[in-house]
């Protein structure tokens, strides 16, 4: 009997977390919720997005009765994790900017956080920097188009490399002879562009994708819970797809998922 986990994102970015869950916890039954009706979250006003996600996930939790929920989205996690934990007696695993990891690994003392425009404005992000990286020089970069570029890539469409270069350019800072050496990928869509980012980066940096740590945390959380099975129409390792727009999964959904599972996310 496997455990049932809801994985939630605005689109296919959460696949960067799914690939790690599949690798580390192959018996978990995944119900993937793509809130495509609301994509991109990065454009939403804060309070409206909070209410929207709390209500929506409340409905899905009642319907699927999962053992755990993975909020595979930084934009959502930094906003609603506390509200969700206060309302539901199940485990939530969030995806928040990997600032602690970057602070531990940076050699130059300069790193950047690349995220949606709203994530880099959140108190949650400022608090992580104050708590874990007080001595680092942190550059916060809000990217407007990157999540859509990642959706293009996953769908097999060409990526606009000039747009990609322009979006990541502000991540590269130089100060007193030191240079940025880490870019934190603080949106779950971005690992699917990491190899292309490396191609257009002005100098080599490490692109930090925390998805492995999120899957490990899910394993810890599930270890403390009982089992529950679920049915649904499976696509590869995903038991069921839900698109909030009400549309059916696109005909090439297996291709999108295969591409996501096979892609190098560094
Ligand atoms: N994948 C989401 C994140 O991690 C956001 C993408 C969006 O703007 O919808 O922040």
From TrEMBL:
Highest taxon listed in the record's lineage: Bacteria
Gene name of the record: murI
Molecular function terms from GO = glutamate racemase activity
Keywords, alphabetical: Cell shape, Cell wall biogenesis/degradation, Isomerase, Peptidoglycan synthesis
Q: NCBIfam families from the entry? A: glut_race
Q: Give the record's pathway.
A: Cell wall biogenesis; peptidoglycan biosynthesis
Tell me where the transmembrane regions lie: none
Active site, renumbered: 73 (proton donor/acceptor), 187 (proton donor/acceptor)
Protein purpose: Provides the (R)-glutamate required for cell wall biosynthesis.
What name does UniProt use for this protein?
Answer: Glutamate racemase
Assigned protein family: Belongs to the aspartate/glutamate racemases family.
Reactions catalysed, semicolon-separated, are: L-glutamate = D-glutamate
Tell me, what's a Pfam family for it? Answer: Asp_Glu_race
Binding of substrate occurs at 9-10, 41-42, 74-75, 188-189
Please, one GO biological process term? regulation of cell shape
The record's EC number reads 5.1.1.3
């Amino acid at each position: 009997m496997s455990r049932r986990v809801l994985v939630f994102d605005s689109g296919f970015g959460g696949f960067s977390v799914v690939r790690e869950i599949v690798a580390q916890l192959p018996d978990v039954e995944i119900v993937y919720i793509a809130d495509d009706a609301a994509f991109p979250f990065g454009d939403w006003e804060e309070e409206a997005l909070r209410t929207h996600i709390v209500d929506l996930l409340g409905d899905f939790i009642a319907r699927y009765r999962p053992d755990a929920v993975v909020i595979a989205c930084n934009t959502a996690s930094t906003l609603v994790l506390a509200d969700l934990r206060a309302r539901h007696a199940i485990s939530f695993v969030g995806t928040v900017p990997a600032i602690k990891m970057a602070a531990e690994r940076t050699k130059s003392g300069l790193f950047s956080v690349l995220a949606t425009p709203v994530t880099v404005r959140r108190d949650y992000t400022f608090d992580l920097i104050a708590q874990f990286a007080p001595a680092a020089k942190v550059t916060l970069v809000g990217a407007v188009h990157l999540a859509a570029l990642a959706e293009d890539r996953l769908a097999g469409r060409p990526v606009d490399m000039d747009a990609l270069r322009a979006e990541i350019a502000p991540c590269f800072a130089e100060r007193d002879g030191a240079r940025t050496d880490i870019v934190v990928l603080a949106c779950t869509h971005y690992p699917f562009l990491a190899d292309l980012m490396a191609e257009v980066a002005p100098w080599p940096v490490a692109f930090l994708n925390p998805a492995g740590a999120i899957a490990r945390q899910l394993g810890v959380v599930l270890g403390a819970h009982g089992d529950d099975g679920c049915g649904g129409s499976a696509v590869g390792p995903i038991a069921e797809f839900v698109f909030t727009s009400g549309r059916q999964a696109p005909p090439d959904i297996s291709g999108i998922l295969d591409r996501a599972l096979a892609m190098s996310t560094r």
